TrEMBL record:
This is starch synthase. Pathway: Glycan biosynthesis; starch biosynthesis. It comes from the Eukaryota. GO terms for molecular function: alpha-1,4-glucan glucosyltransferase (ADP-glucose donor) activity; alpha-1,4-glucan glucosyltransferase (UDP-glucose donor) activity.
Length: 959
């Protein structure tokens, strides 16, 4: 019996454990009646939600049918009975889009109701589990009490047996009263009382056991209700998946409709102009048609008169036969002759009238044709004017490169090429017209047309040439590529002639280069004691003219599959620096500024002054920008001789000798010494590199040349980074309408498989290279701290350091199935745009940061930066709680010490702002998106430095 009870108890515990595995948290049931009532209410809510979902689906289906029919007819033009065109059904399309937005809103509400029902069911399951645990405890206590009672019952049965034996013995021996008393004394009354009490307790336990069985029966019925609830949950989840798929399809259609509306607005304005022209033409045509109808009616009358005349002539012939027979006939004949005369006169007047109508008709047709020709001429003229005034920078850069090609190929004189370049530089409309008119002609005729404009023009601005190893987007590794393109475009818009020189890598994004072609000329350059040929290519990138150098060197310097990281980088880029200057000399260019960047092109400065100024390339001032003093490109002094520089002459403490080794050359130090202007990428970083820690060994050199050293904060390309026109985003948005940011957040969650159960759960992003400079230990800490605070975390980035890459790959594996964290350990341009748009906050916990563009891009997309106060971060991110900063400039959360304690304080404040005050957070997002981080201000500072250097040089030449 005891084994059966234990076995039954184990079965109950196993069932309870099974229920415990399936139950979700946070459930609180009070009784079976409450469960039934809650289940009934939940069923009613589920039924109403299902009905609402069905109605929503019907609306979506009707909307889809409307869209499919409107796709055919939304651009069609109806005609009324008079042939007049009516307006385009724009209002119908706008209404359709509004209905789609309402249906999306209803779908979202249905999803929220379904999630609320699911949460209620899960709560009821948790309550039921608590009831089961209580009943299990009671059952265990009852079993134990039954076991004890069973033992007592056995003991009582033994005592009863002994008592019965004693009684039998007494009855058989018929002993005396003393013996009877003795026997009675041997069995005390307390035993009898104990037996009675045990019997009563046993009866009470039986009753309690019966009650427990009834409770268990009720519990089984409740468990069946739970199973039905689970099935209902599965049905709700299936319905939710169907709703999500329908919603995604509807969002796709809505995006397509919005694109159609944007196209339709342009078509509407164009169509309106065409309608006005057509209406004018139709009025002229109606007038001419009316006159033609009048002429036709007169012609018909004339034909009828001719028929009458014919009949009269026939009558006259008949009358002439009988002319002599009767005097009456004679009179009739005279009368007839008079009528014929009158008819002839009338016919003549009718002919004259017809001729006038015909003449009017011909004049109307001529006026109509003249008006049509004038409209065509006006349209062509207007298109030509627009093409001249609104030609993109790619057009002018293409003309500039074409003229340079003619000059290098000796097809036009150098002086004429210079004058033509200046015309293009000024965006002269005459040269644009000449090119358009000669576009279909051969090259000789185009050259002849261009040479007509070689009169002396006025000088509009500076001629600036950038020599760099990177340029976005064709060859980009870090921020250097963004700076070359962004600064170049900003200076170009200010009226300066900007050209770029780049190596021709095999791994460039060639699809981003427009009109790329080889120049029919070979430029020779000295290297390692001999001359090597170089092929020159031209093309436009982001509207800028670019020259690509392809060395014909057996080392295949730039055909390695990557930009940097080769064992002979020093030789590769010293070779390129020399070829770049050789190209300028060969093309007889006379730039005002030669701007070189980082150690890869730092060789330009000493090469220019030592080798090319004596050859006649002496018009320029040299500007050198170091984007990160961490990378200085030092090498053995003997390697400097390969590009033709005198190592003995330059390996001196006041020139190119590295400050930490007498036998090594430092290109960055050489550029600081030999340049007229030296800049770095933020004012704070310019102060940091003057210290021993920040200067990486060059602080003494920088301080000795401090008069020509400045820090200018970088900008970002606001055309490339614009949430209102970014094609990588799910939904475009702006500072005035930030609702699209939430939709991009949901799109990123779907893409990466993150949970979308809580719309307001903050999303923290991190887009970076995983190197020690970027604060890798704080990024790792940020993952766990974000999850502890109830947020989601997305990391995009990779590391060139193998052990760091492996470490984050291991972290990614651990969080592979986590619903609130994802790691994409590679470079993905499209995904970076979506993360900027989707993130509520973006962390930049750098140990040091010369400038940083990440924080500027984040604010452009409404992602609030959490950054350490260092370098460019200190110059662009200002804490919202810093009373020393004007309110209009406070735009993020900052911390000073590069440790977990400082970072925790900043991210916790950010979470508090986000969770507790939605309106304040929205205002902060809109303020950040409205801040100006464009290149305009930075380009003006560079422009000022350029002009001062050029003015000093011209003054020195005159003196």
């Amino acid at each position: 019996m005891r084994q059966r009870r234990n076995f039954s108890l184990q079965n109950k515990r196993q069932q309870t454990k099974k229920i415990n595995i399936e139950r979700p948290p946070n459930v609180d049931l009070q009784s079976s009646d409450d469960v039934d009532s809650n289940t009934e209410n939940m069923s009613k809510q589920s039924l109403s939600s299902s009905i609402q979902e069905i109605s929503i689906k019907e609306n979506v289906d009707s909307l889809t049918e409307t869209e499919s029919s409107d796709e055919i007819s939304y651009l069609s033009v109806d005609s009324n009975e008079e042939g007049q065109p009516s307006s385009v059904h724009i209002q119908d399309l706008i209404g359709m889009i509004r209905n789609a937005e309402k249906n999306i809103h209803l779908l979202n509400e249905a999803r929220v109701h379904a999630l609320e029902d699911l949460q209620k069911v899960l709560g009821e399951k948790e309550d039921l589990h608590g009831e089961i645990n209580i009943l299990e405890m009671k059952l265990a206590e009852t079993v134990e009490r039954l076991r004890v009672a069973a033992k007592e019952k056995i003991h009582v049965e033994l005592l009863e047996d002994q008592l019965e034996k004693l009684k039998n013995e007494l009855s058989s021996s018929r002993s005396s009263e003393e013996n009877v008393l003795h026997v009675n004394n041997s069995v005390p009354l307390s035993h009898t009382d104990s037996v009675n009490s045990l019997t009563e307790e046993f009866d009470s336990l039986k009753k309690e056991n019966i009650i427990l069985k009834q409770d268990l029966q009720a519990l089984k019925s409740e468990l069946s209700n739970v199973k039905e609830t689970d099935e209902r949950i599965l049905m709700l989840e299936k319905e939710r998946s169907v709703l999500e798929s329908s919603l995604s399809e509807l969002e796709f259609k809505l995006a397509a409709s919005r694109e159609d509306v944007s196209e339709l607005s342009a078509l509407k304005s164009e169509c309106k102009n065409l309608y006005e022209k057509v209406e004018l033409l139709q009025e002229l045509l109606a007038k001419a048609t009316k006159q033609a109808d009048q002429a036709l009616s007169v012609l018909q009358q004339n034909q009828e008169l001719r028929k009458k005349v014919d009949r009269l002539e026939e009558s006259l012939e008949e009358a002439s036969i009988y002319k002599l027979s009767s005097e009456k006939l004679q009179q009739n004949n005279e009368l007839m002759q008079q009528k014929i005369k009158l008819l002839d006169e009338r016919l003549q007047r009718s002919d004259e009238e017809i001729q006038s109508y015909v003449q009017l008709y011909q004049d109307s047709v001529k006026d109509f044709q003249d008006t049509l020709d004038n409209l065509k001429d006006d349209s062509k003229k207007r298109a030509l004017d627009e093409s001249v005034n609104d030609m993109p920078w790619e057009f002018w850069s293409r003309l500039l490169l074409m003229i340079d090609s003619w000059s290098m190929e000796k097809k036009i004189p150098k002086d004429d090429a210079k004058l033509l370049r200046e015309l293009v530089w000024k965006r002269d409309g005459r040269i644009c017209d000449a090119y358009i008119s000669c576009k279909e002609k051969n090259e000789r005729e185009i050259i002849a047309a261009f040479l007509r404009f070689t009169s002396s023009p006025t000088r509009p601005g500076l001629h600036i040439i950038h020599i760099a190893a990177e340029m976005a987007p064709v060859a980009k590794v870090g921020g250097l590529g963004d700076v070359v393109t962004g600064l170049g475009k900003a200076l170009q818009k200010k009226g300066h002639l900007v050209e770029i020189l780049l190596p021709k890598y095999d791994c460039m994004q060639y699809e981003s280069i427009k009109n790329m072609k080889a120049v029919d000329v070979v430029v020779e350059s000295y290297f390692d004691g001999r001359l090597y040929k170089n092929k020159i290519w031209t093309g436009t990138v982001e509207g800028l003219p670019v020259y690509f150098v392809e060395p014909q060197h057996p080392g295949k310097f730039f055909w390695r599959g990557q930009l940097y990281g080769e064992h002979d980088d020093f030789k590769r880029f010293s070779y390129f620096s020399r070829v770049a200057l050789e190209l300028l000399l060969h093309a007889e260019k006379r730039p005002d500024i030669i701007h070189c960047h980082d150690w890869q092109t730092a060789f330009v400065a000493p090469l220019y002054w030592d080798l090319y100024v004596p050859k006649g390339l002496d018009s320029a001032r040299i500007c050198f920008t170091c984007h990160n003093f961490e990378y200085q490109g030092t090498a053995s002094a003997s390697e400097l001789t390969s590009c033709g520089l005198d190592a003995y002459h330059l390996n001196r403490p006041d020139r190119m000798q590295d400050n930490s080794a007498n036998d090594r050359i430092n290109p960055v130090k050489g550029a600081i010494v030999f340049s007229n202007i030296v800049t770095t990428v933020s004012p704070t970083y310019a102060q940091e590199v003057r210290t021993a820690q920040g200067g990486k060994g060059l602080h003494a050199t920088i301080n000795s040349h401090s008069k020509k050293f400045a820090g200018i904060l970088n900008g970002i390309d606001t055309d490339a980074w614009n949430p209102a026109s970014d094609d990588f985003l799910e939904v475009q948005y702006s500072a005035s309408d930030i609702e699209g940011k939430l939709e991009n957040k949901e799109a990123l969650r779907r893409l990466l498989g993150l949970s979308s159960s809580e719309i307001r759960r903050p999303l923290v992003g991190c887009i970076t290279r995983l190197v020690p400079q970027k604060g890798v230990h704080l990024i790792r800490h940020a993952i766990y701290r974000t999850l502890e605070l109830g947020g989601q975390f997305v990391l995009l980035g990779s590391s060139p350091v193998p052990h760091i890459q492996r470490e984050f790959e291991d972290i990614g594996d651990r969080f592979q199935n986590h619903e609130h964290a994802r790691f994409v350990l590679k470079y993905d341009e499209a995904l970076s745009h979506l993360i900027y748009a989707a993130s509520d906050m973006l962390i930049i916990p750098s140990i040091f940061e010369p400038c940083g563009l990440t924080q500027m891009i984040a604010m452009r997309y409404g992602s609030i930066p959490i950054a350490r106060k260092t370098g460019g971060l200190n110059d662009s991110v200002f804490d919202v709680d810093d009373d020393a900063i004007p309110v209009q400039f406070r735009n993020g959360f900052t911390f000073v010490t590069a440790d977990e304690l400082g970072f925790n304080a900043a991210i916790e404040r950010a979470f508090n702002y986000y969770m507790n005050d939605a309106e304040t957070w929205k205002e902060l997002v809109q303020k950040d998106m409205s801040m100006d981080f464009s290149w305009d201000s930075s380009a003006s500072q560079y422009e000022e430095l350029y002009e001062k250097a050029v003015l000093r040089a011209r003054t020195a030449r005159r003196n």
